[in-house]
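INTERNAL AUDIT FORM
Audit reference: QA-55
Scope: verify that the stored structure record matches its stored sequence.
Auditor: D.O.
Record contents follow.
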Amino acid sequence: EDMVPPFRKSTRIFVARIPSSVTDDIFH
């Protein structure tokens, strides 16, 4: 976990807070 870049952790938290439909729009 400590070896994961900070932005990766932030992204995981961010994605968890928004609807999957929105994440699809962002990552596709």
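Auditor finding: record pair retrieved intact. The two ends are 26 Å apart (CA to CA).
Action required: none
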